[in-house]
Amino acid sequence: MTAEEICRLLATGWVDSHDIPEMLDDDVRLNVADRAAAVGLRLFYSPATDSYGFVLGGGLPETSSHRMAVRLDRSHRALIAVCWMHLRWLPAERRRVGGTIQKLGDEEPSMTVDELALQFKGNLQKARIEHMMLPHLKRLGYLEQREGKLYAGPMLDGLYEQRATEMARDYMLRYKRMAHLRQRAEQISQIRRSAEKAQGC
Amino acid sequence: MIDNRQVLEASEAFGETVEPGDRDAWQPELARAHDLTPLPEIERAMPTLGIFGGLLGRRHVPYKVGIIRELAARSGVRWKMRDISQRVDWLKPNSIHRLVRDLVLGGVLHYEASRGTYRLTAEARVVASFCRALTVSQIKHNRLIKILTAAIRTAQAIGEDDGAVLQPFADAIAILEDDFEEMRALIGDRSEERLKEAVLWARDNVHDMRDLLDHEEEFFGRFQADPIYLDMTDRAHKALTALALLTDEVYIALFEQTDEILRRGLNFDRQDIREMVKFLSIAEVAAVLNDPLCLPAQVHPVDTPTMFMALADYLGRPEVTGGLPEPSVVQVFPPSSPPRNEFFIAKRELEEIAAKGGAPLADWVAEIDWKTAVARMGAAVGAWGRYGPAGTDGLKAVVDPGEGLESVGRAGVALMSPARVRPPEVRS
User: What is the reported pTM?
Assistant: First the structure.
């Protein structure tokens, strides 16, 4: 494949690296990256999925008449964030705490649509998640669906992981603190009630 | 204690009888701008000072508090009315006169008829001191136990009955119990910022209650055999223990333990993430991602099912998305020709004539033949009725009817009424 043909492929979707062995050649890869940069794009490699694609090379200038082909609203972002927490952040934290590295053959993290929808109960309808949002996110490469399960797509590697990790850890710390305090408050109340009951007897 | 004789003396001294209805309507008059009097400060403290309502009466309490404060702060113990007027210079003398009378009737001031002087009663001295101490817009929650301890001391100093000593103690216990429940509620709501504030206040209250119980003998020595007091003490210790435990837990968790958790490693599992997400808003979850989000550069084919899903979602009818409808032939009918609107045609003609500066109506009516002339005359009358001043008033022409008949002699028309068409602004 020529660099131009590879560019055509990458501008329209994600391609596994083994399908474009030409990219192993530094010259070809540089050529593709230059062509992408010339039109405001960036060559992107997802190590987790071992695939290539093009992403936007920077922010979009303000233009009133711009009709974006790719638009993600706050709900989409929330969905991506939760998927990232389950499929990327949790395994990474486990490896960090356990001091282990991901081995070949380790089961790839996945989740079901039901599991995902349950977390947004009251905020997003399952039908909307399943039939409107997920197809969009799958097409964009944030998620992949195989045999009814959702897996991380190459675009999940495109998040600014350090910041997302900090935010997620902050949320989790707050949640754990409050869960612990709720448990302790309940225990203390129980002790107090028992003491009052004992005194009553 | 005030007696009837004093009331009588006071009323006689003012040379008038007390008329409740009159007093309700009356308002004291200020001698200067409201902001330049002690009233704003006193009014802000009214929620607190209202507790003296029984003594100060229902009406004009801020003014009365102001007078008592002025008198208690000055030297001397007996004052003539002119002394009071000089000291309370922010009220007009007549108003001072009436308020002083009310204070005498309320037993706050004592009037000595033989000397013509007023003095603060013992109760009023105490009230004045408390009024000054309590002239604050609000009492901080973490000062409550301290204040109630002071109330116990006051009751002891006054030598009041047991109830006056024990009631503030019961109130202090209730505050601890309330603090505990409030903190539990805030933990349940996950209101971390409010919990931080509440725990600091509660710790102060715990400290003050410990202090109170440490001096139990000093405060409540005489109640050691009183079963009511013993029950209260037991309740106080239980409330104190529970609140102390909870405040310690909360304080450590919110102010000290975060670094420790991070150092030891944050252990969590999928269930934790699920529970955590449930308690976050969509905006908070979305905020995990950096802004701007890295977007793929791709052109997408149209996805019809997704479009219909979006439409169903917009319409709020998810049931219509159970598959696309089967295609069907839509029957198309040719549009039918609308009938001629003769009135509208006439309107257009009349406006055209008017736009050219005006002309006799006969110029257009009697142009072709008799049949057309009849039709046009009818249409002109119809247009005037429908679009003229009596109709929609949209006709940009005026038809002035003339008197009698005029000779036309063309297009089969011999005679016609001499009507003239002109632009609206032109007068004939």
Answer: 0.54
Note whether B183 and A182 are within 8 A (CB). Answer: no
Say which CATH class A74-158 falls into. mainly alpha
User: pLDDT digit string (tens) for B207-255?
Assistant: 999 988 888 787 777 777 888 888 888 889 999 999 999 999 888 888 8
Q: Does residue A60 belong to the interface with chain B, where contact is any CB pair within 8 Å?
A: yes
DSSP letter (8 states) at residue A146: E
How close does chain B come to A59, measured CA to CA in Å?
7
Counting residues of chain B whose pLDDT is more than 90, the rounded percentage is: 18
Q: Which residue of A has its CA nearest to B292?
A: A59
State whether residue A151 is helix, strand or coil: strand
- Neighbouring residues of A3: CB distance < 8 A, sequence distance ≥ 6: A22, A28, A31, A32, A35
With contacts defined as CB-CB under 8 Å, which chain A residues touch B262? 169, 173
Answer whether B289 sits within 8 Å of A164, measured CB to CB: yes
Helices (H), ranges, B15-92? 20-25, 39-44, 46-49, 53-56, 61-73, 81-87
Strands (E), A3-137: 15-16, 41-46, 51-56, 110-112
Minimum-distance CB partner of B294 among A55, A128, A131: A55
Best of A80, A177, A184 to disrupt the B interface (most B CBs within 10 Å) is A177
Q: What is the pLDDT of residues B163-191, one digit of tens each?
A: 777 888 888 888 889 899 999 988 888 88
Could you give the 3-state DSSP secondary structure of residue B117? strand
Q: How far apart are the first and last CA of chain B?
A: 99
Q: Where are the domains of chain A?
A: 3-56, 74-158
**Chain B interface includes A123 (CB < 8 A):** yes
DSSP A153: -
Q: How far apart are CA A87 and CA A153, in angstroms?
A: 10
For residue B310, what is the nearest residue in chain A, using CA coordinates?
A: A132
Does ipTM exceed 0.85?
A: no
Q: Is A41 on the interface with B (CB under 8 A)?
A: yes
Could you give the domains of chain B?
4-134 (1.10.10), 141-264 (no CATH), 342-422 (no CATH)
d(CA A33, CA A35): 5
Residue B309: closest C-alpha in chain A: A132
Whether the per-residue pLDDT at A104 is higher than 60: the answer is no
**Token representation of residue B52:** 């003296």
Q: Considering only alpha carbons, which residue of chain A is nearest residue B255?
A: A177
Interchain CB distance below 8 Å, B289 and A159 = yes
Within 8 A of A74 by CB-CB distance, chain B residues are 282-283, 286
- Residues of B in Cβ contact (< 8 Å) with A143: none
Closest CA to A152 of A119, A92, A108: A108
Q: A167, B288: Cβ pair inside 8 Å? A: yes
Q: Phi/psi zone of residue B83: left (φ > 0), alpha (ψ -120 to 50 degrees), beta?
A: alpha
In chain A, whose CA is at the least distance from the CA of B191? A178
- Burial annotation A28-43 (CB, 10 A radius, 16+ → b, else e): bbebbbebbeeeebbb
